[in-house]
Amino acid sequence: YAPALELYYTGAAGNFTMDEKVRAVSGAVTTAEAVKDFAALKRCNDFLNANLPLSAQLPWQLRYAAFLEKNGKKDQALAKLSLLWQQLADAKLVKEAERAALELMNFHLRNKDLVSGGKWADKLEKSSIPAYAAAAAVVNGRLLESQTRYESAREKFLAAVCETAYDVGACPVLWDTPGGRYDRSTCKMTDAKLLKKLMKVPDSKPDT
What are the tens digits of pLDDT across the range 27-62? Predict the structure, then answer.
């Protein structure tokens, strides 16, 4: 990776455009990861952070945090993700901040911290990105189930899926087994509470 790094880290770097420098250092990242050269990788990451707009830093910061976590530096990875989310939130880069929040949620779940994972899931449930909101609803549903509140969790999950389907222009379909929440012989819902919750979705979206 040294030749790629030298494009920036020598006096000759002044002969290259910023885009060329970024491409050179970006290429060095892959090799630095492969040989697990933490010092070189940090150097590359610091350069990209200093020379890219905050929104463009997102994939590199996430990649760097993933590398740190994979290689046993979980505290550093968490600190990197937390700082990234805060910076994006402060800059009002909503979608980018939500992506960082998604990674934080998954980080905590991978590391068995269900409480912290649930807190990030709560933040994401009202995400402007349907896939993020659905993922958060699944997590919260599972957390509720693990706390023995099965019915509440299932209702929350089904309502979230129903709403996400409407948001993307799809028709929500409830696939249920006999004896469940839908009576196939009468073609009626047997779970009045769930039905009421599901019907609130189209009522709140008159244009869909």
Answer: 778 878 888 888 888 888 888 888 889 998 899 999
Q: Using one digit for the tens of pLDDT, what is the confidence trace for 133-185?
A: 888 888 877 775 555 555 777 788 888 888 888 888 888 887 766 667 788 78
Q: Which one, of 90, 86, 91, lies nearest residue 104 by Cα?
A: 86
Residue 153 CB burial class (10 angstroms; 0-12, 13-18, ≥19): buried
Q: Treating both helix axes as pointing N-terminal to C-terminal, what angle do 18-34 and 2-9 enclose, rounded to 10 degrees?
A: 150
Return the biggest CA–CA distance within the chain. 80
pTM greater than 0.70 (yes/no): no
CA dihedral 117, 123, 127, 132 (to 10 degrees): 0
* Geometric angle at alpha carbon 129, from 126 and 130, rounded to 5°: 80
